Amino acid sequence: MTTEQTAAGGADAAAESAAPSSAESEDQRIRLVRWTCTTGSNSRSRGAVVLESGDHRWQASAEGNGAVDALFGAVDQALADVLTGHPRLLAYDVHAVAEGPDAEGAVTVRLAPPAGAEGARSDGTYEGASQNTNIIAASIEAYIGALNLLLAEAHWQGATDSAGNFRAAPGETGPQTEYDPAEAKPDTTRWWS
Question: What pTM does this model have?
Answer without folding.
Answer: 0.73
